[in-house]
Amino acid sequence: MTSLLDELQLADAIPIDYLNSSTEELHIRAKRAKEILGDRLYILGHHYQKDEVITYADVAGDSLQLSQIAAKQTAEYIIFCGVHFMAETADILTTSKQAVILPDIRAGCSMADMANIDQTERAWNELQRCFGDTIVPLTYVNSTAAIKAFVGRNGGATVTSSNAQEMVEWALTQKERMLFLPDQHLGRNTAVKLGIPLERMAIWDPIKQKLELLCDLQDVQVILWKGHCSVHMNFLPKHVETLREKEPDRNILVHPECTYEVVNASDFAGSTKYIIDKIEASEIGSKWAIGTEMNLVNRLIASYPDRDIISLNPFMCPCLTMNRIDLPHLTWALEELVEGRVINQIVVDAQTAKYAKMALEKMM
């Protein structure tokens, strides 16, 4: 299997023609290529993608939802307009006869990159030394296939932002303690909802290889990996405070990848699907400030002009890694397939896929 480093070194292989072509020309070429490929192709589009990309998606959704949809398709080619860990999950769940393609191999996730397998193995060894066999690991689906496989090998499961509460409840029936990777904020916000005090949560710092404690070691119930989403960290308590002062009638709706302080100060918090459904069900004329990725917020603003929707952070920008998937790269991937060439295929080795699938199936 080609390593991620090797893939990244080849990332600039896109012909200059695609970068120099006009948007209008690229749309014409992308539409033509998609029509030629027909039912041999299925395109997945994550909610955070640009409009120029999402318009070609056969389905839009959250990362795991899209991979589950891909597993039900018979298409020979699955193009995943998202980021690397999402395409890995799609490859794990689809058949060996299908090729999963990421239009720009550089489209990664900073959160997923905050927990690599070497760091995790070292952390696990130290935590086992401290706590013995009293920990079940959970990983957010926003993690690499290697981390999912680690969790599967050690009796744990994956979680999504939609089912995190149910999965954390399950984990704490299995063992005395839980290790939650790689997003500390989703783990903390979920545990608080279940009544676990902040004082009983410790943080594992993978850089310092150190456990940060707020209580005695034996009282620790939840161990949070020190990782975060770079997008959702840009929503701050001061944004909530400012809105409360200026517009007390505006509803504040955020993603649980935001910090505890932001989630606690908001009116509503939930997954991307929860956010979309909440706006769809809201009253005409209602006012909302949304704390999540800007492409999605802009799409909600355009889709619901009869609501007053703004970003919680007025200076927010889209997710930079998600935005690596653009019209030139998508058109390139499509036209290469027309010529019988598969570029940027994401392949998870069989051993990793086996254990990662165990973690996914335990959740599903």
Structurally, how many domains make up the residues?
Answer: 3
What kind of sheet is the major sheet?
A: 6 strands, mixed
- Count of alpha/pi helices: 16
| Class derived from helix and strand content | alpha/beta
Distance between the ends: 28 Å
Strand order of the largest sheet: 6-5-7-10-8-9
CATH superfamily of the largest domain: NadA-like
Contiguous runs where pLDDT drops below 50 for at least 5 residues: 1-9
Q: What is the top-level CATH class of the largest domain?
A: Alpha Beta
CATH topology of the largest domain: Rossmann fold
Order of helices and strands: HHHEHEHEHEHEHEHEHEEEHEHEHEHEHH
Overall mean pLDDT stands at 93
Indicate the proportion of strand residues: 15-25%
Q: What CATH architecture label of the largest domain applies?
A: 3-Layer(aba) Sandwich
SSE blueprint:
Elements lengths: L3 H6 L6 H5 L2 H15 L3 E6 L4 H4 L4 E3 L1 H9 L5 E5 L2 H10 L5 E3 L15 H15 L3 E6 L4 H9 L3 E3 L4 H11 L2 E5 L2 H10 L7 E5 L4 E3 L9 E4 L11 H10 L4 E4 L5 H6 L2 E2 L2 H10 L5 E5 L2 H10 L4 E4 L15 H12 L11 H14 L1
Parallel strand pairs: 1-2, 1-3, 3-4, 5-6, 5-7, 7-10, 8-10, 11-12, 11-13, 13-14
Antiparallel strand pairs: 8-9
Helix pairs in contact: 3-15, 5-6, 6-16, 8-16
